[in-house]
Amino acid sequence: MSTLEKYKICPSCGEKNPPTVFECRNCEADLTRVRVVGPETERGAYTLVSVDRDYSYTLDAPEIVVGREAEMKEYLSAKPFVSRQHMKVSVVGPEIYIENLSATNKTFVNNTAVADGSPTRILEGDEIGLGGKIVDGARQAGAAYFVLEACP
Ligand SMILES: [Zn+2]
After folding, report:
1. pLDDT tens digits, the chain, 152 residues: what are they?
2. Is 75 helix (H, G, I), strand (E, B) or coil?
3. Which residues pair with residue 30 across a beta bridge?
4. Neighbours of ion ligand 1 (CB under 5 A)
5. How many angstroms separate the CA atoms of 49 and 82, rounded?
């Protein structure tokens, strides 16, 4: 496998940078802590970690449906604001997309609701809220919140 096919994806703007750079060539963000990824590291490279750090789920399949009666149910079954099938996660190469499947409760990325019917790309460090967002600085007990992180 050629090293030309590996890159660092900027967490700020999504730019694919050469693996050797320490600063994004598009927006100059710091890339020193960003891992080098490539097509061969596509699945299993990222985890969703609950903000309370009690639970994590490795994104190791091309499509993952998440909800109280789907994947991650061992954590989500105690969260009444989360739907039975709440969100679809797609792993496309090294890129992660999410789609809201809940008709009643929304899915949020960094406190903004994702548009229905269109996959939204998420980046390392983004916070995903299932069934709730942050209101007056507080997270809602009935909702679930995760951060996208690279696998250690
Ligand atoms: Zn950038």
Report:
1. 344 578 888 988 989 999 899 999 999 999 998 888 766 555 668 999 999 999 999 998 889 999 999 999 999 999 999 999 999 999 887 789 999 999 999 999 999 999 887 899 999 999 999 999 999 999 999 999 999 998 87
2. helix
3. 23
4. 10, 12-13, 15, 24, 26-27, 29
5. 16
Contact by Cβ (8 Å): 50, 145: yes
Q: What is the H or E stretch that residue 144 is in?
A: strand 144-150
Judge contact between 109 and 127, C-beta under 8 A.
yes
**Residue 89: beta bridge partners?**
64, 98
CB 42 within 8 A of CB 91: yes
* CB-CB contact of 7 with 19 (8 Å): yes
Cα-to-centroid distance, 11 and ligand 1 (Å)? 7
Spacing, Cα 93 to ligand 1 middle (Å): 19
Cα–Cα distance for residue pair 33/132, rounded to 1 Å: 29
Domains and CATH numbers, the chain: 1-41 (2.30.30), 43-150 (2.60.200.20)
How many residues are there in the chain? 152
Residues forming a β-bridge with 85? none
DSSP letter for 23, please.
B
